[in-house]
Amino acid sequence: MPGDPHRDESQLGGVHLKYLHHCPRQLWLYSRGYRPERGNELVALGETVDETTFTRRRDVDLGEAKIDWVTTGAIVHETKSSRAPSPAHAAQVRHYCLLLERRGITVRGGIVHYPLIRRTTDVPWDATARAQAETDEARARAVIATDTTPERLPRSRCRSCSYTDYCWGD
After folding, report:
1. Which residues make Cβ contacts (< 8 Å) with residue 107, sequence separation at least 6?
2. Where is the DUF83 domain (predicted)?
3. Most buried by CB count within 10 Å: which residue of 39, 78, 165, 167?
4. CA-CA distance, 60 to 57, in Å (whole number)?
5. Handedness of CA 38, 43, 45, 50 (dihedral sign)
């Protein structure tokens, strides 16, 4: 079926990769249309940070993914409201690099911006990063393709997750 991330490689976006690294259950639920993040305060904060930071840049919409912006020399930029860098953020940037490369663009790397703590993290783009991005895609597709919901993470890892009510509600 077109547009189904189970079967259509072009439909795997950055959020899928971020959720893969955060929680496979979250990825599985998201891929099936469950979207509790729409009412989550932390998601709203992230959207506000994104809209009010780096206002002179423009999103790059690839269809399946939306990159915050790309600068000259094909450097991918992603803005996060988090106060701590996460492997999920770098995975998302690597995925964007892979998507651009597949479109014939020579990518040099990426930068994750954390405006609330005034830090950046460089995300290299080389053969190792490409292999990791491809592995992450395969892992995400495997999670999405399973017929049963993945196990919950320990509750301590679910702090401030918008999917908590689904996973831990009574």
Report:
1. 74, 75, 76, 97, 100, 101, 125
2. 14-168
3. 78
4. 10
5. negative
Give the number of other Cβ atoms within 10 Å of residue 16's Cβ: 25
Q: Is-contact 28 146, C-beta < 8 A?
A: yes
pLDDT at 120: 95
Q: What is the mean pLDDT of the chain?
A: 85
| CATH class, range 9-149 | alpha beta
Dihedral in degrees, nearest 10, Cα atoms 20, 143, 149, 38:
40
User: Domain spans of the chain?
Assistant: 9-149
Region of residue 120 (left: phi > 0; alpha: psi -120 to 50; beta: else): beta
Q: What is the pTM of this model?
A: 0.81
Angle between helices 87-102 and 14-22 (to 10 degrees): 150
Listed as own residue / partner, the contacts of 154-162 with beta carbons closer than 8 Å and 24 or more positions apart are 157/23, 158/23, 160/42, 161/22, 161/23, 161/26, 162/36, 162/37, 162/39, 162/40, 162/42, 162/43
